[in-house]
Amino acid sequence: MRVLVTGAAGHIGGHVIDDLLAHGHRIVATDLVPLDDPRLDRVHTGDLSDPALVRDAMAGAEAVVHLGAIPHPNSPDDSALFAANCLTAHRVLDEAGRTGVRRVVAASSLAAVGLAWSPRPQSPRYVPVDEEHPTLVQDPYGLSKVVLEETARATHRRHGTDIVCMRFPFTGTGERLAAQLAAVRDDPGGHRMDLWGWLDTRDAARAVRYALTAELTGCHVLNVAADDTSSPVPTAQLLEEHHPGVPYFTELTGHTSLFDTSACARLLGFAPKHSRSAPDTADRTDEDTGEEADAVRET
C-alpha cells in the first residue's frame, strides 16, 4: 500500500516509516525539514498549509498517516499554534476525502481530554479515562486535538473516509524514554496531570500500522497507551496521593494504566509490547523485522 506520511521527520514519524517499510508498504513523505532517505518513493518539503503541496503529496496515495503538527503547547503565540494545527488537519483530511483515500490515521493526543497541559490543576472525572470522558481542555494544543477529532468526523460524514484518530500520551524510546521514566521516578507528583501515561514509540508505530490495516469502517477515536503507568509507585497510591476522591470503575492493581485502551484492543487487535518494568530503553533490533532500529528522533 502506498502511504502518505505527514510530519515524517518527527519522532513518531520516523518510527512509523521504519515500521511500514519493514512490512512492505511504500512511503511518500512530507515535512518542513528536508528528508534524505532513498527508501522513500517521494519527499515533499514544505508547510501543510500550502494546498498545492498537500495536493501533490496526496497524488497516488492509498492511505494517509497524518502526524504533521506542532507537537506541544510551548509556543509564544497560542492562537498561531491553534490555527496552524487546525488548518493543517483540515487541509490534509479534506484533501484525502476529496481524492478518494479510503483510510486515514491521524495523531490526536490524550491532551484532548484536557488534563496534560492544563494551566490550572484538574483531576479526571473518573478513571480509567476512556474515550467518552468529558472534555476538560483549556490549552490551545489540547483544543487543537479536539478540533482534529471533530474534523475527522466531519470528513467521514462528507466523504465517507474511514479515519482512526489515535490519542497518544508521551512517546519515547532509547534515551528519550529513559529520561522520562527517571523524571517520573524522581517526582511522580510532577506528572500528575498526564496521569503517568506513556507509550514506547515502537508500539506507537505498530499501532499506526494496525489502524491502517484493520477491517473497520467509520470514524474512531482511540486511546493508545502502555498497559502500565510510567511510575514505580502503585497506581492506587498515585491516585490517592495526587487525585484523591476520583472514582474508579475497575480494580487498580499493581501499576495498571489510568487510561482505558480496550477499544483499541477490540477494534485494532493491538496490544503494546513494552512496559515500564521491561522498557528495553536502549536502541535495539526491531522485534517485528530483525532490522536495526534508528536512533531516537526528536519531535
Please summarize what this structure is.
This protein is of the alpha/beta class and 299 residues long.
What is the 3D shape? globular
What composes the largest sheet? Answer: 7 strands, parallel
Binned, the helix content reads 25-40%
**CATH H-level name... which superfamily?**
NAD(P)-binding Rossmann-like Domain
Structure classification = alpha/beta
**Strand residue percentage:** 5-15%
The CATH top-level class label: Alpha Beta
Q: Provide the residue-averaged pLDDT.
A: 94
Task: Give an account of the 3D structure.
The protein has 299 residues and is of the alpha/beta class. It has one domain (2-268): Rossmann fold, CATH 3.40.50. It is 34% helix and 15% strand. It is built from eight helices and nine strands. The strands form two sheets. A seven-stranded parallel sheet has the order 3-2-1-4-5-6-9, sandwiched between helices. Helix 4 links the parallel strand 5 and strand 6 (162-168). Helix 1 crosses helix 6, helix 2 runs parallel beside helix 3 and helix 3 (78-98) packs parallel to helix 4. The radius of gyration is 18 Å and the shape is globular. It starts with a strand and ends in a 31-residue tail after the last helix.
